[in-house]
Amino acid sequence: MKSRLIEALCGVAMCLTVVTCGTQGGETKGEGTMNIERQPFGTTPAGAEVELYTLVNANGLRARIMTYGGIVVSLETPDRDGKLADVTLGYDTLQEYIRDNPYFGSVVGRYGNRIGKARFTLDGVEYVLAANDGENHLHGGLRGFDKVVWRAEPVERDDAVGVKLHYVSKDGEEGYPGTLTCTLTYLLTNNDELRIEYEAETDKPTPVNLTHHSYFNLAGQGTGDILGHELMINADRFTPVDASLIPTGELRSVEDTPMDFRTAKPIGRDIGQDDEQLRLGKGYDHNWVLNDADGSLALAARAFEPTTGRVMEVYTTEPGIQFYSGNFLDGSNVGKGGKVYEHRYGFCLETQHFPDSPNKPNFPSVILRPGDRYTSTTMYKFVTE
Ligand code: BGC
Question: Per the CB 3.0–4.6 Å rule, which of 127, 175, 230, 309 could disulfide with 304?
Fold first, then answer.
């Protein structure tokens, strides 16, 4: 692949990189140009300036990512006729994200999903976390990684453009021990993947479980519910929950339950079944235990939208995935282009360690210790059929 770097000013936006891709050697399937653009996206009430990065790959896929919450603001992918649509829910402005965001497109941390009773004991010391979901701690607390401004720099690789985000979470933030230094790299590759690489280091032992919370609708954001998407999850087991959505600790077989997605089926097929777990989750809102999770990047889930032919494959190094069917969307969020997000207009596939792991000794450990490095990679790959 031939590449060349041009820096230029284009209007208010700073075009940071234009990489011209050739097709010699079959290394890339694109003939277009990769591009990174940076522009201002507003200011937080505390006065922090927020930037929006626009990434375009050689095939014309486009991702817009902002430094507030590391939020994926939009993600445009082609349907089977090559027509682009934005497949993620979100808002048009920073102010709307700050006012009321049910984690649309967000980075989630220091701990994705719930920690029961907002507390855990580590090395004999009990830590009390911010309780922001009844008595539980959810998605990092009152001001999780989705509500902070990350420092950003553009990233350019042979076959991808991206943005690298940095955030230092202070010792005691939301109740967690240790200063956690985090780096997150979003890459839009010429294989039509949105790849997310997480890294973190700490100066005291602390739980870490970072994830990504885009709500997807492969027919296009705001076009309807997601019940017709056909979903496969590569998992023989899931972690059943109690009434406050905390795992009981059991790893239960999906066999003969509505949780069985080993063969792809429409999300809506079994969601209305009279099933205890579906009642507790108000639909799907559970963690699946991924098969053969050995820390290498492996296929976790696949979603297919029949009317547009869009397919999203999710690969991860994580042992679990939260499938959330947008049960709490109720029409009160008015999103991009004035679209009203009604019940189940989007779904999330959040790669993760299991919820409440700090209180579940039988779950894979989430404790990061000084001198060790937390790494995690997840890839959302877009194809059509
Ligand atoms: C959780 C849901 C929660 C949603 C939005 C998901 O990851 O599992 O219970 O309502 O995020 O906060």
Answer: 230
